[in-house]
Write a structure and sequence with these properties.
Blueprint: E1 7-9, E2 21-22, E3 25-26, H1 46-56, H2 69-85, E4 88-89, E5 96-107, E6 112-115, E7 121-123, E8 129-132, E9 139-149, E10 155-156, E11 161-162, E12 173-177, H3 203-212, E13 217-222, H4 224-227, H5 231-238, E14 242-245, E15 257-262, H6 263-272, H7 277-284, E16 292-318, E17 323-333, E18 338-339, E19 349-350, H8 353-373, E20 378-385, H9 393-400, E21 409-414, E22 426-430, H10 437-448, E23 451-454, H11 468-472, E24 479-482, H12 491-505, H13 521-539, H14 553-560
Parallel strand pairs: 9-12, 12-13, 13-15, 17-20, 17-21, 22-23
Antiparallel strand pairs: 1-21, 1-24, 2-3, 4-16, 5-14, 5-16, 6-7, 6-16, 8-15, 9-16, 10-11, 16-20, 18-19, 22-24
């Protein structure tokens, strides 16, 4: 998830025709040949989002882990409130889309031991390393696996880059740097987009590639800056049950173990092999880097508690008045981490008030506003997805098994964590310039006297870290923005301080709890903007597309062909 207020937008498709009357008169915008209708402001109930955020993050929901009592309570609450708002069940006669999951929790984890070097080493689970498996097996035992440093663990033929070149790593343990090679650049030029992270920089990709290469284990080196979060986030996220989409081979094609190690652990490991971490990290940033066998042996073992369950995406729909088979999508993930590493006071419930009770509650508030304003021309789908915290699993399942065809989905807005920072002068656009949705955003911003600014931390790869990405991979254009950090009260410094405080003290921890003293004014301003954008898409006749040359353009063109 993005560590500050999130919005993900996504109208999809090929360029449509301009024209048509709108609810407030003729089209207000013709930019790039797009029909961008004007939208009147509406009242969005602050009480709805405030009260639902408090309820969803109550201790009785136990952190809303998939398959838990928290899920049962969330389903009951959202379906009741969706129905009361005036929505209809979004999956035939059902509010639910079943999502098959397997939960795997590592226990009885041995220290990670390293032998064969200058000094025998042992690293403890939790404080120095975390580890688990994607395989549905009761025990994992890795004994004396050869250790190889593989730089950033990237195999990108189109870029002439292969960190595995010339070495068979089958059965071996690979040590991988986080992010991608040019994350420290000062601009956006470079083999991997300069400081803007590509998918090759995401930890999910690194494990996928290690599995394709046949590695027994993959260990990513954690560093705060390129990871964009501290070790505490890794520890809380990777201990406890980990959920995955069930596969026919029960995970047999995956590595035996995936995990993270602290930077200090990596430095000790490489020093024992007679290598220097800083020097190897520098070398790994250059094209032509080759993997480095370290002459070390790694061993680790753990047992697995395995559960299979069906979690659920929750779907409501407001059918369109004129073109009900064209869809605009609002999404938010309802899940959080459940019980997690206790705080010093013993609190072990990760309530997820900001992440993402706020976004889930916003779905209901927006549903109420749309229903009161009357159905727009296109249908509006409100989708609360599961298992985002486990790797975007609910949105991935929906994207691959859509209730409403993606080629008929005009766009979407994903909301993932609203910080209570107060109103801002700007919005920050993640992936600015990727699609023609920038035009819809510009029109909405003009109506509320706000401006768009580019992401100041593109190296953190926020574009690949929330549920909009599951749809983007399958061609659905996504405009991804947050509420901005140039606050009306305090400016950029104040906005940065709010984000920093949340990231360091509450994100993915037991203290992400509801606070009755929160200032909701900034959230409500953001929701008014999100309503305008979604309503404009729902009244438009256009099908905005990705820009020429974007990585997702081709798959969208193919899906829309003949529509």
């Amino acid at each position: 998830m993005r560590l500050s207020p999130l919005l993900v937008l996504a109208p999809l498709g090929l360029l449509g025709l301009a024209a048509c009357q709108t609810e407030s008169g003729p089209s207000a915008g013709r930019a790039a040949g797009l029909d961008i209708p004007e939208v009147e402001a509406v009242d969005i109930a602050e009480a709805t989002i405030k009260d639902l955020t408090q309820m969803l993050s109550d201790d009785s929901f136990e952190g809303r882990a998939p398959g838990s009592i928290g899920e049962e309570k969330t389903i009951a609450l959202l379906t009741e409130r969706f129905a009361a708002a005036g929505l209809k069940p979004g999956n035939g006669d059902s509010w639910l889309q079943n999502v098959p999951l397997v939960g795997i929790e590592a226990n009885k984890v041995s220290p990670l031991t390293i032998s064969g070097g200058k000094t025998p080493l042992a690293f403890n689970y939790g404080s120095e390393m975390v580890i688990g498996t994607y395989r549905e097996t009761e025990t994992i035992e890795i004994i004396d696996s050869d250790v190889v440093f593989v730089g950033f663990g990237i195999n990108a033929p189109e870029k002439g880059w292969n960190d595995y070149a010339g070495l068979d790593v089958k059965g071996k343990t690979v040590v991988i740097l986080v992010n991608d090679p040019d994350y420290a650049s000062v601009d956006l030029t470079g083999d991997f987009g300069g400081k803007a992270m590509t998918y090759y920089g995401r930890w999910t990709y690194k494990y996928e590639e290690a599995a394709r290469q046949g590695a027994a284990a993959a260990l990513i080196v954690h560093e705060d800056f390129p990871a964009a979060y501290g070790w505490g986030v890794v520890e809380s996220s990777w201990t406890g049950p980990q959920f995955f989409a069930q596969s026919k081979d029960r995970g047999a094609r995956q590595t035996m173990a995936n995990g993270w190690i602290q930077k200090g652990v990596a430095e000790q490991l490489l020093a024992s092999a007679g290598q220097d971490f800083a020097q190897l990290s520098k070398a790994a940033k250059q094209k032509g880097f080759k993997p480095v066998p370290l002459g070390l042996k790694a061993s680790v073992s753990f047992a697995n508690s395995i559960t299979t369950t069906r979690s659920n995406n929750i779907i409501g729909i407001l059918p369109g008045a004129k073109r009900p088979d064209e869809y605009v999508l609002y999404t938010a993930h309802w899940d959080h981490l459940g019980r997690c590493k206790p705080a010093p006071d013993g609190d072990d419930i990760c309530n997820g008030a900001v992440d993402n009770a706020t976004g889930t509650a916003a779905l209901v508030a927006l549903a109420e506003a749309f229903a009161k304003a009357g159905a727009p021309d296109r249908s509006i789908v409100f989708l609360a997805v599961t298992a985002e915290e486990s790797g975007l699993l609910g949105s991935k399942y929906y994207a691959e098994n859509p209730v409403y065809p993606l080629k008929q989905t005009v766009g979407g807005i994903n909301m993932d964590a609203f910080l209570m920072a107060g109103p801002a002068k700007d919005v920050t656009v993640i992936g600015k310039g990727k699609s023609q949705l920038d035009n819809f955003l510009s029109a909405a911003l003009k109506s509320v006297d706000r401006v768009a600014t580019a992401d100041s931390s593109p190296q953190n790869g926020y574009y690949y870290r929330s549920d909009h990405f599951s749809l983007a991979k399958l061609g659905v254009p996504m405009l991804y923005i947050n509420g901005g950090e140039d606050l009306i009260n305090g400016g950029v410094a104040a906005g940065a301080a709010v984000s920093k405080d949340y990231t360091e003290n509450r994100y993915h921890g037991p203290k992400d709890e509801f606070n009755p003293a929160w200032d909701w004014s900034g959230v409500m301003a953001d929701l008014a903007l999100y309503y305008r954008i979604g309503r404009s898409m729902a009244m438009s006749t256009s099908w905005p597309n990705w820009v020429d040359g974007d990585e997702f353009r081709a798959v969208r063109d193919e899906s829309r062909m003949g529509s």
